[in-house]
Structure formats: C-alpha cells, structure tokens
C-alpha cells in the first residue's frame, strides 16, 4: 500500500464484519441520474465490494437489506424529519419497509445523500454495528475550505509533498484521475470548497486561459460539492489591463473587478469567491492608496454580490515600518473596522497572532469583532511543526484553539462559537486549512500527515469533535479497526504535537526556526532586515531572563483579550505555563509550578520531547507485524529522521540559550555534543517549500 487511497481503502474486512456489511448493503436503492447520485452510488459500490468481496445490486426498489438513499423529491412520504439538516446534512436510520430491514439515508438534497453515504461507509469500514442506526448530522460551519498555496509554475509555497497537483500547463484539456480522487477524499470528510492558488497570488490566475483551467477543475469537483475559489492579487487591474491605479474607491477599478467577476461566473456559475492577502508581507493592497481593508474588501464584495459570491479577506498583516509588537498588529488594523464590512465579506484570521507556531494562544481578534463574520485559518501543512517527516498530529492543536474561551460574552464564548456564528448570530461562517497536498503518491508527504487533512475536515464539519475521537476514526480507516493497532497508534498521535512543542518551543516560546525555510532551529538569528523576522525578537533572551513581555510593562498585547483573560495573562502565576514566555519575560531562576527553575524546566522539556519521539519509535517497531510493509517502512524511517532532528533541536537550542543564561545544565542532562558555532553553521539552501 502506498497511501494513495488515504482513508478510503475499503480493504476486505474480517468475516464477521464483512457479513454484517453484506447484510445491510446487498442492495443499493439510490434513484437519480445526476452526477452527485452517480458519485454516491459508485462510492457505495466500490466500498461494499472492497469490504465484502461481493458486488451489491443496484435497484430502484427498496428490497430487504437495502441501503435506501432518498430525498423528499424521490420519496415524498419519508418517515423522518429533515428540518435543520440544510443541503449538506443527512439522517441515517434503520427502519422497516413492509417488515423488511432497510437502512435509510435521507437528506433534503443529493449532496446530503453523498455525505450520508460516506458516513455509512466510514462506519462500515471501521467495523461498527450497522443495525439500530439513528444518526443526524449537519455541518456546523458553512464554508469548509482548503487553501492551496500552489503557484502557477507547479511549486507549492510551504509544500512538502511534491509539486502542485494542479497541472496548469495541460489544463483545461487534460483532467487526470487525481482530480476526482481529490474531490472524493474531500467530500468524504465534509470539505466543500478549495482555493486553488497561493495567497501570494499572480495576476495571471485571472486571465481568460487560467479562468478556463479553473473552470475545468470546477467541473470535476462539482458532483462532490466542492466549489472553486481563487486568490487574487490586488494590483491585477494594473498588471493585466494597464489601469493607472488599484485604488478601491476609483470607479474604473471597481468596474474592472465587476467585469472580471462577470467573466468568471460565465465560466464557473457556482464560483465561490475571492481570497485576498493585501498589505501583508510586501503584497499590495488598499492601504497603498490610504484606504482601509474594509474599503478594499467591500469593493470586491460588490463585484461578487450579484453572483452570490463572497470575499475572504485575510487579517494576516504586519508592517515593516510598524515598531509595535507584531502580535498586536492585525487587531490594531481590523478591530476598528468592525461593522464596516459588506455582508458577503468574511475576515480570515489565523489561529494565532504570529504565524502557525507549534503553540500560540488563540488570536485576540476572535471574540473582538462581533459585527463581522470571522473565519479560522489553520495550517495543515506543517511549516513550523517538522514539515513532511515529523509525526506531529495536529488534531490537538485544532481542538485546543477551537475550545479556547474568548470570554467575549462571558464564560463559554469559545473560538468554536465565534466561527460557527452562534456567538454573534452570523450566517456566513467558515474555516480554512492551508493544504498539505501535493503530487506525492500518498498526497500529504507521509501517511501520518494524511491524518491532519482528515482531522481538519472532520473538525470543520463538527468543531466539537475531539482530536482523540478523530484520531481513532482515522487510524481504524487508515490501518485497521483492530484495537491492538488503534490504541498504540492513537496514543502516539495524541502526544506528538506536545512533543514537538517541547523539543522546539517549550513554555510559550515561538518563531525560533531558522530563516526562510523555517526548517530546524535558528534561535540565534538576529541580523535580518526586519526586526520581526529575527528569532531574537521573539524570545528576547538576555542575561536576566527570557520571554516576550506582553503585559503592561511590555507591549501590552494582553489588553487585546477580554478583561478576564487579560487579567489572567497579566500575572505569570495565573498564566497557563504552556504560554508563559509568550506573555512574560522572566528570570532564568523563576520557579515553575514544579518548583524547578525556568532554565531547568526548559531543559527538561527539550529532553522530554526527544524522549517522546524515541517512545514513538519503539511503539511503531512493535506494530511491525500488523502494518503492511510499505507504510511501515516509511513511518519507521520518518520517525528515525524525527528523532535525529528532535535531538538537533534540543542540542542547538540548549547550546544557544545556555550561552546566554550561563547556567549549568540540571543533573542528568547531557551537554550538547557540538559547539554553538557548529549548529549555527548548518545551512539548507535547497530546503523545500521556501518561496
Ligand atoms: C507564513 C509563510 C508564508 C506565507 C504567509 C501567509 O511563511 O510563506 O505567505 O505565512 O500566510 O506562514 O501569507
């Protein structure tokens, strides 16, 4: 097995499971000729045939043991209520039709049936009971999107899984089989849209030939309910058609975008909308014309409005000439604009205020803009979490962020409630994940990275799902439902992100990765042009201590959080230890809750992270008899790489910080084997994903 089939493997099940599946899926009654119905039927056929070895019959008559897929249109007298399920939700129920047992998958529309079919297959594949079913499921968040940082030349910014899967050169003519498999995989976990190109966009994406290419992809994705979106470059009207300005209040600019929107919708009638990175990291934007982000977003929104399209405006902004704490800048720019955005604009906010670190407190904009719909941006590709080879399951990171309490409207105002719209009554809701997908056979650069794609989709559908539950599902589908595999694999996964935090950025440290490629440690880097590009800006280690003071005596970023949180973060004693150095600059001798000094605690955490990886290797070795050779070997090799690199992270970080703290290592901790200079000398000119 090379991982191509992801979690949709449908391998032959054991005899008992196979018999159970056959008993409930020997007939597929799923009338309808649409491409979506065909997709649902084909998936059930493929799944049941694979799992049981017997091909079910297709019939329009509801026979005993049938899987019956019905909407109010095909079956006006359905025995269950579909209210509240929307177009994508579904119900699955075991019923009797003329005394014969039948499994009914019902939905208001065909897309719901497709999702229901995938749910049933997930249960079948994971060996669950298939009788006495009574399930209702509908997505809590409206837009559940992947963001591809794919460039038109086939490279992927922060991509560690090969090249872009979009073969722009041979599109629109050649539509390889991967596109439909991509859509199937996404639909199976509830993703319903994809932004095809990098947020650092080229204007060319908006030319007629590229619109035709995007339209070809949209045609393949449509039956699976996946809409296409594009990232746009702010100055496209100037670059493509020679306009003199890109000022959003200039009527010729607005007219250009309106015409462009009309052109796109002619080719892609269900086009989703635009994603915009403006006035960020050198990208042009409305501020270049002394206009606000709202001015820019609203102008684009007006062009999309007649077609039902939306604008996703990113809040990932920080300016080179702004001396203030980078973590404060998005809030400073956007909070004053609350209430000024058009109703088809949604502001896309990264989970934390800096940049996809192994750990960040939740972004202070969540909960702070009650009159503006905010969508979450997670990074599935692991730019800062070990890239392709480290096993660092992101489920716990997603869960931790979604469950964070903003206290915006009192206790229980979680980030999940901000983005599902329930806290402030928004109907436009969304969540995006920066994709980890590429041309590698296994799509994601490693088998275990597939779990991050899977978890993103499942938690986007239901932000209350736990990382543990999702890991269990994924493992059962990806390997086997056998507990002897599921238990140890889930245990490995669940602690893996914390281990990366420990060996890279313990106790709230952040952004200490090496320059540009962000691969490996570089806490000593201090000479880059912009202060906030340098790791020393983030950890502020000096002879007296370490950490970024974001309290009143420092940048006062804590004031951007609701008062109960600001109060908690003001005092190191009430700040969660995991975020300690994010909010405070503390003496090396500061006492942690355990009683040990900050310095000793840091060293212990580095060591704990490395030890965890060694533990994962041992666990994996024990699974050798139960995992197929190819996937076993890849994971085994990658864990070895991870252990080597975790050790490197630990040694280099300790060598550097010890040179500043000038303290002995705690008893039992080994000295780094190389000199600090040797760690600094390591260079990686061809590290992948670096723009
Ligand atoms: C950072 C990446 C950079 C992206 C940027 C963004 O290092 O490549 O362009 O975020 O999100 O994480 O715009």
TrEMBL record:
| Any matching Pfam family | Glyco_hydro_67C
Where in this chain does the record put each Glycosyl hydrolase family 67 C-terminal domain? 445-668
Against SUPFAM superfamilies, the record matches this protein to: (Trans)glycosidases (SSF51445), beta-N-acetylhexosaminidase-like domain (SSF55545)
Coiled coil regions in record: none
Care to name a GO molecular-function term for this sequence?
alpha-glucuronidase activity
The Glycosyl hydrolase family 67 catalytic domain is annotated at 125-443
The enzyme's main class, written as a single word, is hydrolase
Instruction: Give the enzyme's EC designation.
Output: 3.2.1.131
Keyword Hydrolase among record annotations = yes
Q: Which InterPro entries match?
A: A-glucoronidase_C_sf (IPR037054), GH (IPR017853), Glyco_hydro_67_aGlcAse (IPR011395), Glyco_hydro_67_aGlcAse_N (IPR005154), Glyco_hydro_67_C (IPR011099), Glyco_hydro_67_cat (IPR011100), Hex-like_dom2 (IPR029018)
Q: Catalytic activity, per the record?
A: Hydrolysis of (1->2)-alpha-D-(4-O-methyl)glucuronosyl links in the main chain of hardwood xylans
Q: Where is the Alpha glucuronidase N-terminal domain?
A: 6-120
**Which keywords does the record carry?**
Carbohydrate metabolism, Glycosidase, Hydrolase, Polysaccharide degradation, Signal, Xylan degradation
Record-stated family: Belongs to the glycosyl hydrolase 67 family.
Task: Share what the entry says about its subunit structure, partners included.
Answer: Homodimer.
- Write the protein's name: Xylan alpha-1,2-glucuronidase
């Amino acid at each position: 097995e090379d991982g191509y089939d992801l979690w949709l493997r449908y391998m032959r099940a054991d005899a008992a499971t196979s018999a159970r599946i056959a008993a409930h899926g020997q007939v597929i009654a799923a009338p309808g000729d649409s491409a979506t119905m065909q997709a649902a039927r084909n998936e059930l056929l493929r799944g049941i045939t694979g799992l049981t070895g017997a091909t079910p019959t297709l019939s329009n008559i509801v026979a005993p043991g049938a899987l019956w897929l019905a909407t109010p249109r095909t079956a006006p007298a359905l025995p269950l209520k579909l209210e509240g399920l929307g177009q994508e939700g579904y119900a699955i129920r075991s019923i009797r039709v003329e005394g014969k047992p039948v499994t009914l998958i019902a939905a208001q529309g065909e897309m719901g049936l497709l999702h229901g079919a995938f749910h049933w297959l997930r249960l079948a594949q994971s060996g669950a009971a298939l009788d006495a079913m009574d399930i209702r499921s509908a997505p809590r968040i409206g837009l559940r999107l992947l963001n591809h940082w794919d460039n038109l030349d086939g490279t992927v910014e922060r991509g560690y899984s090969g090249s872009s899967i979009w073969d722009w050169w041979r599109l629109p003519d050649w539509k390889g089989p991967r596109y439909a498999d991509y859509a199937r995989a996404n639909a199976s976990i509830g993703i319903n849209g994809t932004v095809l190109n990098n947020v650092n966009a080229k204007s060319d994406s908006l030319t007629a030939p590229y619109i035709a290419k995007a339209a070809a992809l949209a045609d393949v994705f449509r039956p699976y309910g996946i809409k296409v979106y594009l990232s746009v470059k702010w100055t496209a009207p100037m670059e493509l058609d020679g306009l003199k300005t890109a000022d959003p209040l200039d009527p010729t600019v607005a007219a250009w975008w309106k015409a462009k929107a009309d052109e796109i919708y002619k080719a892609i009638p269900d086009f989703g909308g635009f994603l915009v990175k403006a006035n960020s990291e050198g990208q042009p934007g409305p501020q270049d014309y002394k206009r606000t982000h709202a001015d820019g977003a609203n102008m684009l929104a007006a062009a999309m409005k007649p077609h039902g399209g939306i604008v996703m405006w990113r809040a990932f902004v920080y300016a080179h000439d702004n001396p203030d704490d980078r973590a404060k800048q998005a809030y400073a720019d956007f909070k004053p604009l609350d209430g000024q955005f058009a109703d088809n604009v949604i502001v896309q906010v990264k989970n934390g205020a800096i940049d996809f670190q192994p750990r960040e407190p939740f972004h202070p904009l969540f909960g702070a803009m009650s009159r503006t719909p905010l969508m979450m941006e997670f990074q599935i590709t692991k730019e800062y979490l070990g890239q392709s080879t480290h096993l660092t399951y992101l489920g716990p990171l997603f869960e931790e962020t979604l469950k964070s309490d903003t206290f915006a409207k009192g206790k229980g105002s979680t980030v999940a409630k901000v983005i599902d719209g329930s806290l402030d009554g928004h109907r436009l809701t969304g969540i995006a994940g920066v994709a980890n997908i590429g041309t590698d056979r296994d799509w994601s650069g490693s088998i275990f990275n597939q779990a991050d794609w899977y978890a993103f989709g499942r938690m986007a559908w239901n932000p209350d799902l736990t990382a543990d539950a999702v890991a269990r599902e994924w493992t059962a589908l990806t390997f086997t439902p056998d507990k002897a595999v599921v238990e140890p694999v889930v245990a490995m996964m669940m602690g893996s992100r914390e281990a990366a935090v420990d060996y890279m950025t313990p106790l709230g440290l952040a952004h200490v990765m090496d320059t540009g490629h962000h691969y490996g440690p570089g806490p000593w880097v201090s000479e880059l042009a912009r202060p906030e590009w340098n790791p020393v800006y983030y950890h502020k280690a000096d002879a007296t201590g370490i950490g970024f003071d974001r309290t009143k005596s420092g940048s006062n970023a804590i004031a951007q959080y609701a008062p109960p949180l600001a109060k908690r973060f003001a005092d190191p004693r009430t700040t969660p230890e995991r975020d300690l150095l994010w909010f405070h600059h503390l003496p090396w001798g500061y006492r942690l809750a355990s009683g040990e000094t900050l310095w000793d605690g840091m060293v212990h955490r580095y060591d704990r992270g490395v030890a965890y990886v060694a533990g994962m290797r041992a666990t994996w070795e024990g699974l050798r008899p139960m995992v197929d050779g190819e996937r076993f070997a890849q994971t085994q090799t990658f864990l070895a790489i991870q252990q080597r690199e975790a050790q490197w992270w630990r040694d280099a970080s300790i060598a550097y910080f010890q040179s500043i703290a000038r303290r002995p290592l705690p008893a039992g901790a080994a000295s780094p084997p190389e000199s600090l200079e040797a760690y600094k000398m390591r260079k990686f000119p061809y590290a992948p994903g670096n723009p």
